[in-house]
Amino acid sequence: MFYAFGFERVGVVMGDLYFIDPDPLPGQEGAERGVRLEVRLLERGELRGSIYSARPIVVDRPVWRVDLLEAVTGFPGSLDRAHHHPAFRGWEPGPRHFVDGLPAQPLEWVAAQLSDLDALLEQAGMTAADVGAGDAEALRQAVPEIADVLGRLLNRVKAEQLAFSPGDEELTSARIGWL
What we know:
The chain has helices at 106-114, 117-123, 135-158, and strands at residues 2-6, 10-20, 32-44, 57-71, 83-85, 88-89, 92-93, 174-176.
């Protein structure tokens, strides 16, 4: 499942994720499932036909990421592996940052982060000049809708309707999902 919210130059994308890290941190071994949400830069392409043609849209480089993950072998809904990546080096995320309170109140925590685009940009080494002039306010106004969709995705993962294992085979690495 994949959702996208687009503004002038900033977008928020999210989807379910099944993940096995081939080089996990101590205590983070084993498969994980959950929802990944990213703030990304967007680019509108030029029309490739008439004024009625579909417009190409590029979901470009990441700015910030939150992974609302839990161990597959653990309690559904625990989000015991929830973390965020405040910055990227190009397309590569920085290290996992675990935050107190994130597993207990993921929607509120994510909403607070998305409500302050300037702070997210600063953490990523960017400024408001790198995005559209109205992006921060447009994103702030859309936060309730984004949080609603995020909550529905988390509920579907908890109910084991999304973020599935690729099968019965023994895997040492996997990444199943749009993001």
